[in-house]
Design brief:
Low-confidence stretches: none
Structural class: mainly beta
Mean pLDDT: 81
Number of strands: 5
Largest sheet: 3 strands, antiparallel
Order of helices and strands: EEEEE
Bound molecules: zinc ion
Length: 67
């Protein structure tokens, strides 16, 4: 199931899929904003959620993430 979430730090609108393949093998997985690395939510899934930016935030991040 596709869900969208807005990053509270940079304002990017991100989409993630919390689809789970195996029932009963799920855990809460935190996922990060691909733009700024802020934790934007968690999904109850057996996979690491794949997060894609569907709209760039209006707030520009001035600090590059190194590493
Ligand atoms: Zn962000």
């Amino acid at each position: 199931m596709k869900n969208t979430v807005t990053c509270s730090q940079c304002g990017a609108i991100c989409e993630y899929d919390d689809h789970s393949v195996w029932e009963g093998n799920r855990e809460h997985e935190d996922f990060l904003c691909p733009k700024c690395g802020n934790v934007i939510g968690s999904a109850f899934t057996d996979l690491i959620p794949i997060v894609t930016v569907i709209k760039k935030g209006e707030k520009e991040t001035k600090n590059e993430i190194i590493g």
